[in-house]
Design goal:
The complex is a heterodimer. Chain A has two helices and nine strands; from the N terminus they run ββββββααβββ. In chain A, the strands form two sheets. In chain A, strands 1, 4, 7, 8 and 9 form a five-stranded mixed β-sheet that branches. In chain A, strands 3-2-5-6 form a four-stranded antiparallel β-sheet, with no helix packed on it. The longest helix of chain A is centred in the C-terminal third of the chain and has 6 residues. The mean pLDDT of chain A is 95. Chain B is built from no helices and eleven strands. Classes of the chains: A mainly beta, B mainly beta. At the A-B interface, strand 5, strand 6 and helix 2 of A face strand 2, strand 8 and strand 11 of B.
Chain lengths: 182, 227
């Protein structure tokens, strides 16, 4: 063990809502942008009950697949793209973001990286949001291919039309979302 | 390979983990240099206000309780400073009550204390907060359950894989032995969550000082995972 052993993770607990969420958190880009998409979903536990005290964070490339370098994730200026979003769940366990469809990076299937924090999670769960239109890229994606076929769909958002995508997160049990060791 | 210092998802002594811990094995993506998981948001000083890091100055009057200074460095696993990274904190007040509607502990709220702050680390990776020592508080995990006093910390680092949310404790707390959240961490790593009292940080006739360094895992560390 080095002298610099990593600091362990602890749960975000039930009372983060007055500290971490901020008003522009879910607006990675403003709603009025013509290329904005809406990503939304619900977090549920092992009994299918909503998780009303979770916090979702996303990190993604821009529509051209470029890694964002711009500041402004806390105070958005509506123009620069920070690639980062944060949303806490409502009493029904729902979250939402307005953001961009990520572009491909080096030919890989585009995705949004996601972390979920909650009371009861002593460390966050990590997952990825893939897009249903990218059928051939998804079929060739190394992660999606490595996941058991019957669980693969948990990583792909559902198009709801009108630039809206649904991505539910099931922490445990039937239809459990595939989580990643990253 | 170093041992994983993190708790397991399923820690039955912590009751809330039972229905929320994933039950399936985790997938292991191969991360390349372009993988977005190896990037982190970039925060600029213009996004924060100076008083964001002084939790005792956010209201009209001074909060009740023991004024403290909490400072330390954010380091990577090689001991290098992580500058300009966002550090966020939130905590209960001196009576052990959170400014959150769902906190029903019958201890007084303090109209002069919200208990949330943030700052960016400086060029040496240093953060610094002025606040009030939080109180211990009861919770309903088991009979007569009390959380040791703690300050919640959220840190970004330079990669999404380094993202850390944790809790900083105070030295010598008699509640450690009874707290399933503290004890969810392997025994030899628990002390890393405990700050130390520091007379050099303590300011005469003003505030007690505590030091606590935060070490982030390597950005591209081999994932360490339970089954």
């Amino acid at each position: 063990m080095s002298a610099y052993g990593p600091t362990p993770s602890q749960t975000v607990g039930p009372f983060f809502a007055f500290g971490l969420p901020y008003s522009d958190g879910p607006r990675v880009v403003p709603e009025w942008r013509p290329d904005a998409i809406r990503l939304r979903g619900r977090v549920t536990d092992g009994e299918g009950a909503p998780v009303p005290d979770a916090m979702i964070e996303i990190m993604q490339v821009d529509a051209e697949g470029r890694t964002p370098r711009a500041v402004g994730a806390l105070r958005r200026d509506g123009a620069d793209f920070s690639g980062f979003g944060r949303c806490d769940t409502d009493p029904a366990g729902r979250y939402w973001f307005t953001t961009l469809r990520p572009g491909p990076v080096g030919g890989a299937a585009p995705y949004i990286a996601m972390l979920v924090f909650a009371r009861g999670l002593l460390k966050p769960v990590a997952t990825r949001v893939y897009f249903p239109e990218e059928q051939s890229a998804n079929a060739a994606d190394p992660l999606l291919s490595a996941v058991p076929a019957d669980r693969r769909a948990t990583l792909v958002a559902t198009a709801e039309g009108d630039g809206s995508y649904r991505f539910d997160i099931r922490l445990q049990g039937t239809g459990e979302t595939v989580f990643l060791a990253v | 390979m170093p041992e994983d210092p993190n708790p397991k998802y399923l820690t039955p002594e912590y009751r809330s983990s039972v229905l929320r811990a994933p039950s399936q094995p985790l997938a292991m993506p191969k991360l390349g240099p372009d993988s977005i998981e190896l990037s982190a948001p970039v925060f600029g000083p213009g996004e924060l206000a100076a008083l964001d890091s002084d939790l005792t100055q956010q209201h009209r009057g001074a909060p009740l309780g023991e004024r403290i200074i909490v400072t330390g460095r954010v380091l990577d696993s090689d001991g290098r400073a992580v500058p300009n990274t966002l550090v966020e904190v939130w905590q209960a007040n001196a009576s052990g009550r959170y400014a959150h509607a769902a906190d029903l502990h019958p201890a007084p709220l303090d109209p002069n204390f919200t208990g949330a702050g943030r700052c960016l680390t400086d060029a040496d990776g240093r953060y610094r907060f002025t606040t009030i020592k939080p109180g211990a508080y009861p919770w309903r995990n088991h009979a007569n359950a009390w959380r040791p006093a703690h300050i919640h910390f959220s840190v970004f680092g330079t990669a999404f894989t380094q993202r850390l949310v944790t809790q900083m404790y105070f030295p010598g707390d008699p509640l450690f032995a009874f707290d399933p959240i503290y004890k969810s961490v392997p025994a030899d790593a628990r002390e890393r969550m405990v700050s130390r009292f520091d007379m050099d940080v303590t300011e005469q006739e003003w505030a007690l000082g505590y030091q606590w360094d935060i070490v982030l895992r390597g950005a591209d560390a081999t994932p360490m995972e339970e089954a």
